[in-house]
Write a structure and sequence with these properties.
Elements lengths: L4 H11 L7 H21 L3 H13 L7 E2 L5 E2 L1 H13 L14 H15 L4 H28 L4 H4 L1 H12 L4 H12 L12 H22 L15 H4 L7 H4 L8 H4 L14 H14 L6 E9 L14 H4 L3 H11 L9 H4 L2 H6 L3 E6 L8 E7 L5 E5 L12 H14 L6 H10 L14
Parallel strand pairs: 3-4
Antiparallel strand pairs: 1-2, 3-5, 5-6
Length: 449
């Protein structure tokens, strides 16, 4: 009998062993973890992060419960997964997977770290669980994410919830039957819409992916049941959330070398806003430096990108920092005016600068071609006087093809910690995390001062 998609995933997850870990795999996991933690510390005092912590505290009357929040205090397992996940995503500075069209690290790490602390998991177990969850997310995404995302789903949460559940099931050492149930229970909770981009709800959706995935695995551990065909049954996930795509081909490759964390990689954001702007920013900042461009000298910018690449950029005249993170127009204006795009670029006051607001109508963006992949961006910058400047960008900085150097990566991490007002030695934390050799992950994250 042909196995269902859930059965294929469970078979892979239960068979994967820490013996497959290599030093490069540990390093890839550690780098992703540090990037995610730094984004959370930087976002900790954002209104959405504060609101969700108040909500989580209200559920238990503020009492100390099971695991630490990353910047002080304690919470329940689900509460910590939710609150840490919201903080890590609220600035939109966390890692990316191009096949997923979303953020894999923030969908998995907050849940794994909460569960790992509670169950005293080792570094090897934690790294293996992340690799398993990442593998499932990317394989599902290769089968369905382009059309899924185009229809309006926020794949970080709508696909990420399933990856989080499988990662947690692995860490709990669930057998195949219980892992299948965890997947079905994750499907029961998978959600998230791109309509919420530019609001608190976007980061909530990422945090909820962790809470829901963790809840699914813990319920499955008790024997709670779900359909083994929840993913690919007649009225299952792929027919409701997708367009009936065949998952079998991608899932047959689960665990095959190279693993997805090696093949597609974890992409690190160089700029703290939607990844769909990053190719344009690379090109525009290069033109600015080479030709000494200033905002007042530019008459217009025409940006052309591959098909569906503009889907998340829904705010054309942003009025807040959250909206500006999903605005191609604002990204271009801020880059030209400031010569960089950084965390402080998304203060509401920065977005509302008159010179920025007046320039927004001068930026136009359009899609061309028939496919999203391979992704590219072109632009023409027209000056008030002088010949127009044109550039094309394919591989962007921070991608799997063009990763940030260690120096560039540490600069980002330290900037996040400084923005969050925390004294953390980024280099030391990165060294510890990339080795992943701790016996108990409760001591892995740095104590925040």
């Amino acid at each position: 009998m042909t196995p269902t998609a859930s059965e294929r995933i469970a078979r892979f997850a239960t068979a994967f062993g820490p013996d497959r870990l290599t030093a490069p795999l540990r390093a890839a996991c550690g780098r992703s973890l540090v990037d995610l933690h730094a984004a959370a510390i930087a976002g900790w005092d954002e209104p959405a992060a504060e609101r969700v912590r108040r909500y989580c505290a209200s559920l238990s009357g503020g009492a100390v419960d099971v695991v630490r929040l990353w910047r002080g205090g304690y919470g329940s397992l689900e509460g910590a997964a939710l609150a840490n996940g919201v903080a890590a995503h609220v600035l939109d500075y966390d890692d990316v997977s191009s096949p997923m069209r979303g953020h894999p690290g923030v969908a998995i790490w907050p849940a794994l770290l909460a569960l790992g602390e509670a169950r005293k998991a080792s570094g090897d177990q934690l790294a293996s669980a992340f690799i398993v969850g990442f593998e499932v997310i990317v394989k599902l995404s290769r089968a369905m994410a382009v059309r899924h995302y185009a229809r309006g789903w926020h794949s970080t949460s709508s696909i990420g919830t399933i990856g989080a559940a499988v990662a947690c099931a692995y860490l709990l050492r669930l057998d195949a039957t219980r892992a299948i149930n965890a997947i079905g229970l994750a499907v029961a909770q998978a959600a998230g819409t791109r309509q919420n981009f530019g609001t608190d709800a976007k980061s909530f959706q990422a945090g909820q992916a962790n809470a829901a995935g963790l809840r699914a695995a813990l319920l499955a551990e008790t024997g709670f049941s779900a359909s083994p065909a929840a993913l690919d049954g007649g009225v299952g996930y792929i027919n409701l959330y997708g367009t009936g795509e065949d998952l079998a081909g991608q899932l047959a490759e689960l665990g095959s070398a190279p693993l997805e964390i090696e093949r597609s990689g974890v992409e690190v954001k160089k700029y703290p806003l939607c990844y769909a702007t990053h190719r344009m920013l690379d090109g525009l900042l290069d033109l600015r430096a080479a030709h000494r461009l200033v905002l007042a000298d530019v008459a217009s910018i025409d940006i052309r990108v591959s098909r569906d690449a503009l889907a998340p950029l829904i705010h054309h005249r942003p009025r807040s920092g959250l909206e500006a993170k999903f605005s191609m127009e604002y990204a271009a204006a801020a880059a030209l005016l400031d010569g960089d795009v950084k965390l402080s670029s998304f203060l509401d006051s920065a977005v509302m600068r008159p010179e920025i607001q007046n320039f927004l109508p001068k930026v136009t963006a359009s899609e061309q071609g028939e496919t999203l992949m391979p992704r590219w961006a072109e632009m023409t910058v027209r000056r008030n006087d002088g010949a127009p400047l044109t550039t094309r960008i394919e591989s962007l900085r921070g991608s799997a093809e063009k990763p940030l150097s260690d120096e560039e990566f540490l600069h980002k991490i330290q900037d996040c910690y400084d923005f969050g007002g925390c004294r953390i030695d980024a280099a030391r934390f990165l060294d510890d995390a990339m080795r992943m050799d701790c016996r108990d992950v409760s001591g892995l994250l740095p104590v925040v001062a």
